[in-house]
Amino acid sequence: MNRKIILAAVTAAVLTMTGCANTGTGMSDTQRNTAIGTGVGALAGAAISAATGGKAGVGALAGAAVGGIGTYIWSNNMEKQKREMEAATQGTGVQVSQTHDNQLKLDIPSDISFDTGRYDIKGNFAPILDRFAEGLRNNPNTQVRIVGHTDSTGTDAINNPLSLHRAESTRNYLTARGVNGSRIQVEGRGSMQPIATNDTAEGRGRNRRVEIFVGEPQQAR
Questions:
Q1: What is the number of structural domains in the chain?
Q2: Which of 27, 54, 67, 87 is 20 to 30 A from 44, comparing alpha carbons?
Q3: What CATH number has the domain bearing residue 135?
């Protein structure tokens, strides 16, 4: 019976926090993501503990710690870099966001980044990367992951290396502007992770993209 009470209480807390997070009542992105992550973690911890016959309270606290802390932290420097990139990309179509695990994400569509079938950086992508490189130089503790994508036109034999070459071109541009290449990981996903239908020209344009993730690792204490 105690397990049911604890689970019900944690569930109610998660729903309350999620509801508050969605109302936009003065919560920042960081507070919103941490509240949701902590609540979901607590619920998972309590559920696992109850299912295994352990102490639900301990499980909830452990789950909350995992959900709230995660792998990355969202520092003042990360928030500053996000605001700078939002200003630098305003009106360009680049999407700048904070992920639920506290990474800064830039989603760059093909009409800005690369022409169809090519991996040389376009002129209107360069100023965005210049500003981005400046932010990375000012935040040397961050790690970067660049992921290239294509639409489904063509074969994997073409798309897979093309997506990787696009990520590599982006990395090379950043390193040429003083960013340490050891901080940057590159990946090519080909057409494996579409975000829109490949049945229309608009959808294919959205799928041809580069995603850049920046994370500040949690420091060991």
A1: 2
A2: 27
A3: 3.30.1330.60
Strand 143-148, strand 184-188: pairing? parallel
173 and 149 together in one domain:
yes
pTM: 0.68
| Helix axes of 29-51 and 2-23: crossing angle, nearest 10 degrees | 170
Strand ranges for the chain from DSSP E: 72-73, 95-98, 103-109, 143-148, 184-188, 209-217
Domain end (from 70, 99, 116): 70
Same domain assignment for residues 90 and 199:
yes
CB under 8 Å, gap of 24 or more: what pairs does 188-191 form?
A: 188/147, 188/148, 188/160, 188/161, 188/162, 188/163, 188/164, 189/147, 189/148, 189/149, 189/163, 190/149, 190/150, 190/156, 190/159, 190/160, 190/162, 190/163, 191/149, 191/150, 191/151, 191/152, 191/156, 191/159
The pLDDT tens digits for 168-197 are 999 999 999 999 999 999 999 999 999 999
Domain edge (last residue) among 52, 70, 88: 70
pLDDT in tens, 45-59: 444 444 444 444 433
